[in-house]
Amino acid sequence: MMKLIQVGVGGYGNSWLSTVMESQRAQHVALVDLNLEHLKQAREITGLPDSVCFTNLEQALMNGIEADALLCIVPPAYHESVIRIGVSAGMHILSEKPIAHTIQSAHQILQSFNKTDRIFMIAQKARFHPWVRRFRQIVNSGQLGQISHVTHYFRAPYYSWGEFRHQMQDPLYIEMSIHHFDLLRALLGCDPVQVWSTSWNTPYSTFAGDITGVAHFVMDNGWPITYHADAIASGDMTDWYGEIRAVGEDGTLTMIYPELYIAKKGANHTDRQAPQEFIMKVSNPQEGQLVALYEFLDAIKENRTPESSGQDNLKSLAMVFGAIDASRDQEFKQIDDYLF
Asked: CB burial class (10 A; 0-12, 13-18, 19+) of residue 273?
């Protein structure tokens, strides 16, 4: 049984409490959170005593808590300080996305693992679903003919989305789009080489920073991807995944939750509904969290690099900061410039 310290148990950290318990392969040996009410609620969920609940990680270690791994579920600005302490204590690290709140901090975190054999993984839950594997297989099989382009459309009503996100300069790209950008890499089996973007804050926004944006990526196989997201939308909403289409000469592979299907040729101005070939049901996004935890535990057991390792996930983070900079400068950015 893998022994875990979880840092951050309120908000989204609350869902990780039950995920660890459900896994039956890991157990909490300590909980850390600045908020005493969050710690109280976490104790009630886990049944852990007050003696292993702390308001900072150093305090837990000074009190003799021994753990194999650390689960980092704190706002991105605090990732580097928490992860560095965990690495110094010899723990494997599973962290929520993004790696960090800046690309420089992300590189500092990765460098802290250079002289260790510890596993560092980012919990990008979306990429671990069966439908994602099936999408990648179809889009690369030639079944759709030549691929023209890919579109990803997302709309959500995040009027209240955690106080720290409302204070961020770029909450859309850093907190939401990191999920989608990593998902696109997993869906297509290729990586971005350049990006252009524009983002803005709506006049009725409750956020300090940009919460709506459009990003256009060119992938290393030449495929263009257009991403449009509005996280403070009114009207009809998409699912958390968004709506994703890979457009080919013989059909469009389409994911609109809860279905993955191919919309084939045959639609016209009279009958606008294309013939559909059902592929499979799309699983609930939250189900990927447990699979991500299993991947982390398996990587430790098998002494191998996990899918969504910190180093690999840097490519997804480069998409985020490339898009942010492209929006500010209104020019294409090269993704390699963020992988230094």
From this structure: exposed
Domain boundary pick from 118, 149, 169: 118
pTM score of the predicted model: 0.96
3-state helix, strand, coil in the chain (%, to 5): 40, 25, 35
Can you tell me whether residue 155 is helix, strand or coil?
Answer: strand
Q: Are residues 75 and 201 in the same domain?
A: no
The three-class DSSP label of residue 254 is: strand
Contact status, residue 241 vs residue 287, Cβ threshold 8 Å: no
pLDDT per residue as tens digits for the range 137-163: 999 999 999 999 999 999 999 888 888
Phi, psi values for residue 116, rounded to 5°: -125, 165
Q: What is the spatial distance between Cα 188 and Cα 74, in angstroms, rounded to a whole number?
A: 30
d(CA 132, CA 188): 9
CA distance linking residue 119 with residue 117, whole number of Å: 7
